[in-house]
């Protein structure tokens, strides 16, 4: 289960409800984690005996905006460290929107950004997973299906990041 499914619940309520439901793991929301506090969350999850399946979601990258991309990379590197501290091996990445770029240009840009994260991801033991979003959310991503994410990721020629459908 993911905290995304309980968007308006506080962190504590999620943990209690997921444990009560018998869920073996929780997908931790970056937003909820940041509001609750990382050290406090790690402690609470360990006390509850709840594994973390993934950290969701880092990004989106403002594709084509160099300063925005650089700032998003700083956040993503921090999220990789957080994922490792939580004991998960997966960080979900929202690729970003690119209204001024063609699909191919956006795909090339996001590949370069994600590939720049691979050394940090490998050191942390965390996989990067592309999270496609609904076509209703074109403001946060240009990838809207598993096929889009797969096409984007397999064109890179590198291993080390995965593609998942949300």
Protein model, in words:
With 166 residues, this protein is an alpha/beta fold. It has one domain: TIM Barrel (Alpha-Beta Barrel), CATH 3.20.20. It has six helices and five strands; from the N terminus they run H-E-H-H-E-H-E-H-E-H-E. It has a five-stranded parallel β-sheet with strand order 1-2-3-4-5. The C terminus is likely disordered.
List the helices and strands and how they pair.
Layout: H1 11-20, E1 25-29, H2 30-36, H3 38-48, E2 51-58, H4 66-86, E3 90-93, H5 103-124, E4 127-130, H6 146-154, E5 161-163
Parallel strand pairs: 1-2, 2-3, 3-4, 4-5
Helix pairs in contact: 1-3, 4-5
How many domain regions? Answer: 1
Distance between the termini: 12 Å
Number of strands: 5
Helix content: 40-55%
In this structure, how is the largest beta sheet organized? 5 strands, parallel
Strand order of the largest sheet: 1-2-3-4-5
CATH class categorisation: Alpha Beta
- CATH topology title: TIM Barrel
Note the total helix count.
Answer: 6
Structural class: alpha/beta
Short account of what is shown:
This protein is an alpha/beta fold. It has helices at 11-20, 30-36, 38-48, 66-86, 103-124, 146-154; strands at residues 25-29, 51-58, 90-93, 127-130, 161-163.
List keywords for this structure.
five-stranded parallel beta sheet, TIM Barrel, disordered C terminus, 5 strands, 166 residues, alpha/beta
């Amino acid at each position: 289960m993911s905290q995304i499914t309980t968007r308006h619940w506080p962190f504590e309520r999620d943990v209690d409800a997921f444990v009560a439901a018998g869920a073996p793991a929780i997908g931790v929301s970056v937003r909820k984690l940041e509001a609750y506090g990382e050290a406090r969350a790690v402690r609470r999850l360990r006390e509850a005996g709840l594994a973390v399946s993934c950290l969701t979601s880092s990004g989106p990258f403002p594709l084509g905006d160099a300063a925005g991309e650089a700032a998003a990379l700083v956040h993503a590197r921090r999220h990789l460290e957080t994922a490792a501290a939580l004991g998960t091996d997966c960080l979900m990445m929202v690729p970003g929107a690119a209204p001024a770029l063609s699909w191919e240009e956006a795909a090339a840009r996001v590949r370069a950004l994600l590939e720049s994260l691979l050394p940090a991801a490998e050191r942390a033991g965390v996989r990067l997973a592309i999270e496609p979003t609904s076509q209703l959310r074109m403001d946060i991503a240009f990838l809207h299906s598993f096929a889009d994410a797969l096409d984007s990721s397999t064109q890179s020629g590198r291993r080390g990041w995965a593609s998942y459908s949300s």
